[in-house]
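Researcher: Please predict.
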Amino acid sequence: MRVLVLGGSGFVGRAVADEAVARGHEVTVFNRGHRPAPAGVREIRGDRESPGALETGETWDAVVDTWSAEASPVAVTSRLLRGRAGHYTYVSSRSVYRAVAGLTEDSPLLDAAEPGYGGDKLRGEIATGEFGGPVMLARAGLILGPHEDIGRLPWWLRRLEKGGPTLAPGPRDLKVQYIDARDLAQFILLAAQTGLTGPFNLTSESGHTTMGGLLDVANEVTGGHAELRWTDPAVIEGAGVQPWTQLPVWIPPGPTYDFIHRADVSRAVGAGLRCRPVRETVADTWQWLTELPQDAVKRPGIGLDPAVEAKLLSE
């Protein structure tokens, strides 16, 4: 196929471009050139908010749109590529849903005027109507894997590398849902090739791994230096520690946990979604991370302050 990736140098866009190149597709990426493009692609420099560089009359079999901010650029490119591409995938998010347990693709959505990330993604979905052709809405959950730029799994890997007594948020058998960016990329390309349309919840099945499975593997691949101290959620929350951000990936049992880590993904699995073992995701992320400077993947607010961790462990 001739594939156009809008973005293509960041986390998910890079995974799509790399996978498409590996499959022998002809890949073009469109971005501002702030980061190096993946190997084997053709690059068009331009701005999503003024995408005149795409007004060439060129055609593609598939377009993949990874835009994650205010939705008007999605409408602009969808309109611009109308009649010039065979299939459009918009990488959306499960944040477009209202928080309900066991959500499916038919679960209630946010109000279209909702502010913030979830509202932006929902308005992006609506904007793809300007394309006027087949559209697949990739409603991804937690995304992990090499090139992750949020820093969730990288924070855990760096923390476990340091070793010693380590706060491990329990319960140990708490089920976790996520998707490796490369598995997301494979499904996106499958959707383009087979003409899948409509929304798909894209994350692993609940129980693909657990907090124990994730942290045990992460500890092993980083050298086995950490002594995991499994801690009751009530103790962690009682200390004011924030789930998801200060302890990435982890959500204590309750309604928010059900929303994040217990979604129904049977539609995607039935359409061909396959998720690689947790060990592969963790090991490959660690290999990538060790090639970067120590603090290369570090965002404010992600991860637990060492002094807070030490105080909790001492208690």
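Model: The longest helix spans residues 181-194.
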